Amino acid sequence: MDKSPLITSNHSALFQIDVYVVVFTLRENRLQVLLNDLPSAGAWQIPGLALPTDLSLEETAAQCVAKYTGLHEAYLEQLYTYGDPDRNAVSVVYFALVPADSLLTPLDESAADWFPVDTLPPLILDHGDILTYALRRLRYKLEYSAVGFELLPDYFSLSELQSTYEIILGEKLDKRNFRRRILQAGIIESTPRRRTGEGRPAQLYRYRPDAVAEVKARRLFP
Amino acid sequence: MDKSPLITSNHSALFQIDVYVVVFTLRENRLQVLLNDLPSAGAWQIPGLALPTDLSLEETAAQCVAKYTGLHEAYLEQLYTYGDPDRNAVSVVYFALVPADSLLTPLDESAADWFPVDTLPPLILDHGDILTYALRRLRYKLEYSAVGFELLPDYFSLSELQSTYEIILGEKLDKRNFRRRILQAGIIESTPRRRTGEGRPAQLYRYRPDAVAEVKARRLFP
DNA sequence: GCAAAAGTGTTACAGTTACACCCATGG
DNA sequence: CCATGGGTGTAACTGTAACACTTTTGC
Predict the structure, then answer these.
(1) Which of A25, A105, A196, B111 could form a disulfide with A70 if both were Cys (CB 3.0 to 4.6 A apart)?
(2) Can you give the residue ranges of the NrtR DNA-binding winged helix domain (chains A, B) (predicted)?
């Protein structure tokens, strides 16, 4: 097994690398997170995979999302890397956002389930802290970058988007101000589609993949 | 060698983990970064150490700073973790801020040197990109959190602090606005000390270790 | 025609920027 | 007494927050 050519270590320690993914979605009007049952510990854990030799960290994270949700695309962002001196493993943690409607695909045989972020089961080790941190980062991110639509289907109404923000941030937002800002930010664009249902039909919007966004963007929400 | 109890991997790959630290300081009125000569490659690299079994990631980063600067305390923050599928090593990158005046301590025998961030030598691999990213993160951080004083001695004048910000952000700031904001933010406090020299003596300030700061703090600078 | 959700502008306020002069010391 | 850097307040402006009614559809 080759060593990195750049750093020669004295006692050349080797580690297993675990890639964990905190997967968020929006179900039943609540922000929920995917957890994996670990009966041997009588507790739940954030789903993860050991890094294999032939995949990058992000590919492994994506594969982890696929394994537990059936989705082969998701918004992924690296969160933090934890290294315990005790056990010789290092944990690289990502967070992912997946749209709830696409989750009909059955889960893997593995015993994973969704939990609202405010009513979590007992978690192993420091996974509770990691979740808390992930949630904080998600809220921060939302405030100045507008990733909310990652939790929605490709086409969505502004009311749905606003509701997403309200659920995650945990506060009511002003409808007119919300629309003005989100449109001024230029990250979504209106489409000819409309959603019909109760009340007046809603114009549908979609993400503009070419949006630069976030670069030097002011905070969008208070 | 034990495996992590949480994730059982099929082909149980093991990796060397390299901890790199992008060390920034302020010398000669320029933001400078510490680099390590790698004559075999004819290029320079970000200083790093292989993670040993008995240290945490952050401890290893701190030790790396100590090795190359002689400083046993520094502001440290995790930046990003890079995983190449090619070579079987994973790189956890930190950035550090060290006050220039404390650097009189001689460097390790290793061939490390300081370079202004705008005139870098050839760098190995993706270290140039990593540096660019570290610099962006430093600027972001400075804008809303006020870590500038980490580059200054314990006691400093407001003019020195302002100059620090101007050098890093690359733009002139208004003296009165700067003072008002930095004081309102409540992260530094005035001390009885004064610095004498040319012109009127300056009141000296120091960091308030008890400052909560940054939590929900608005951006401090444009 | 009414219930239900979508859509739309303006005003008051707060925070930010721009700006110029006096002060304390050392030489 | 003068050169040098330290220190101070206000007014115009810009961005943000608060707010209520009209529109379109399904039933």
Answers:
(1) A105
(2) 148-206
Q: Which residue has the higher pLDDT, B186 or A97?
A: A97
Contact B9 A82 (CB under 8 A): no
Q: Which residue is nearest to nucleotide C15 (CA to C1')?
A: B218
Residue closest to C9 C1′ by Cα: A176
CA nearest to B88 within chain A: A53
Cα separation of A69 and A104, whole Å?
Answer: 9
Q: Which nucleotide is nearest to B157 (CA to C1')?
A: D6
pLDDT digits (tens, 9 = 90+) for A117-147: 999 999 998 999 999 999 999 998 888 777 8
- Does residue A218 fall inside a structural domain? no
Name the range with the highest mean pLDDT among A86-95, B45-54, B213-222. B45-54
Q: How far is the CA of B222 from the C1' of C16 (A)?
A: 10
- The pLDDT value recorded for residue B3 is 41
Q: Are residues B28 and B69 in the same domain?
A: yes
- Mark yes or no for CB contact A6/B57 under 8 Å: no
Note down the domain range covering B161: 154-207
Span B136-146, pLDDT tens digits: 999 988 887 77
Give B152→chain A minimum CA distance, Å. Answer: 27
Contact A89 B3 (CB under 8 A): yes
Does at least one atom of strand D sit less than 7 Å from the CB of A121? no
B161: Cβ–Cβ under 8 A, 6 or more apart, which residues?
B148, B149, B152, B182, B188, B205
> Separation of CA B199 and C1' C20 in angstroms?
19
Q: Which positions ≥6 away from A70 have C-beta within 8 Å?
A: A103, A105, A106, A107, A108
A216 touches strand D (CB under 7 A): no
Same domain, A117 and A94: yes
Q: Quick check: is A215 in a domain?
A: no
The confidence score (pLDDT) of residue A88 equals 72
Overall domain count for chain A: 2
Domain boundary among B110, B143, B176: B143
pLDDT digits (tens, 9 = 90+) for A200-214: 999 999 998 776 544
Taking each helix axis from N to C terminus, what angle separates B175-184 and B158-169, rounded to the nearest 10 degrees? 100
Bridge partner residues of B190 (DSSP): B205
Q: How far is CA B81 from the centre of its chain?
A: 16
How many residues belong to chain A? 222
